[in-house]
Amino acid sequence: MAKVTDVDIQVLKDLINQRFDEVKTDNTRLSGQIEQMSEKIMNLEIGQAKIETRMDEWKTGIDKIPDLAEKVGELKNWRQIALVIVTASFGGFIGWLLRSGNRPF
Q: For 58-81, what is each residue's pLDDT tens digit?
């Protein structure tokens, strides 16, 4: 068997220490990235909370849309009725003017 010298042991210790240092460096880098990801997640959660708050504010307006659509439909019918009345009145007035135009004053 070959003899293990102090130099060989020192080389192995240095190699092991170097690997531990690399692992520590990687661990530190990963910890920093995890902290950044945590901050990003917190920002997203804050943004989501703001959106939820705004949606809650809009909810009353959104819930009124079917009622407003129904009222617009009713208004549309009234608008059609009013248009018919105005058209009939205008037509009657024009007819009256035309009839009156044939008579001498």
A: 888 888 888 877 877 777 777 788
